[in-house]
Amino acid sequence: MRALILSDIHSNLEALTAVIDDATERGGFDSLWCLGDTVGYGPDPGPCIKLLRQHNALPVLGNHDYVAIGKASAEDFNYAAKAAIEWTANNLSPEDAKYLSGLPTVIKAEPFTLVHGTLRDHVNEYLLERDTALATLDLLETRYCAVGHTHLPFICREDGNKTTFIEFAEDREYNLDEERLIINPGSVGQPRDRNPRPSYALYDSLESTIQRHRVEYRIQETQEKMRDVHLPEYLIDRLNQGI
Length: 243
Ligand code: ZN
Fold this sequence. Notes:
Bound molecules: zinc ion
Number of domains: 1
Radius of gyration: 17 Å
CATH architecture: 4-Layer Sandwich
CATH topology: Purple Acid Phosphatase, chain A, domain 2
Structural class: alpha/beta
Number of helices: 8
Order of helices and strands: EHEHEHHHEEHEEEEEEEHH
CATH superfamily: Metallo-dependent phosphatases
Helix content: 25-40%
Distance between the termini: 33 Å
């Protein structure tokens, strides 16, 4: 079984399409696992949801999805994120809102557990350092965990009662073994590691390997659509910089 693991699409249809095309060219996938924040920031919430549904994706709910469907307030969002999520909420069809409302916040897809934030706080907490990693490993019932939310790729290894964060390098094959670990595939629609190219991972259960890849996409097309619907200029610019 091969799984395409991706996160933080953020309504960026061109980026999502480029990732799916690239994964298809690299041998394809049987399952598509999405780690949340399908919507927010970008101009195409509906078409991104449609594409995920066409691929029978297993998505979990992210914090932007949560606010877009009115289950949480945007009070912790900065002005640009707030403006974008209000636009998103007003531009989701009733069917898309219903789809997002039905998503779980955590899914077991053996041997992975999928969650947006952490296993302690599924939707909002950022997994960036030792304490949050240890808390998630404490609660982890499968061998591996896949998280999103930070838009930063990494592999975190359990190391006794410590954790070690290592680089999840591009185009390198990592062998997965008995060791428990947490991975973040990076972001599709708004990378924040100073590289604007969408990032994703391919997991192969037969080979027990995982690889991370990046793709080029038609970024200007996304930016033009954002301008057309008056999304904040700051959000349009940051796509170029990968921040
Ligand atoms: Zn996000």
